[in-house]
Amino acid sequence: QVQTVESGGGLVQAGGSVTLSCSTSGIFDTINAMGWYRQAPGKQRELVAITTSGGSTDYGDSVKGRFTITRRNALNTMALQMNSLKPDDTAVYYCNVRVYRGYELFDSWGQGTQVTVYS
Fold it and tell me: Degrees (nearest 5) of the Cα angle 80, 86, 91?
């Protein structure tokens, strides 16, 4: 099994910053990608940021230039630095880790952490 846990989040004023952390553990061979997704009330889950084993990163259009994803390979952890937060960033943020077991890919999701931005 693979376990993924997020931490961080909370209540923050618009314009402020928050850092989310994610760690994964369990039985797997390698990590293919780690990413952050978010879901606001009444909306679909959307990609926030993702980083692959090859070192590439990608961001959702609404967060480009404000959020930064970093990964610490040796520790199987990842962070999301969120700056210049807006009320529209309010959502539950989920960590996703895609791992290889042999030649098969598996997705592991965290339980989610709430980020609320007030103006």
Answer: 60
113 or 55, greater pLDDT: 113
> The tokens of 14 are what?
């618009």
Neighbours of 77 (CB within 10 A): 17
pLDDT digits (tens, 9 = 90+) for 13-61: 999 999 999 999 999 999 999 999 999 999 999 999 999 988 899 999 9
Whether the Cβ atoms of residue 7 and residue 21 lie closer than 8 Å to each other: yes
Would you say residue 62 has pLDDT above 90? yes
**Which amino acid is residue 17, in one-letter code?**
S
* Closest residue by Cα to residue 105 from 39, 36, 38, 31: 31
CA atoms of 32 and 98, how far apart (whole Å)? 5
On the 0-12 / 13-18 / 19+ scale of CB atoms within 10 A, 80 is: buried
For tokens 């994964």, name the residue: 24
Instruction: Please list, in sequence order, all residues whose beta carbon lies within 8 angstroms of the beta carbon of residue 67, skipping any fewer than 6 positions away.
Output: 48, 49, 59, 80, 81, 82, 83
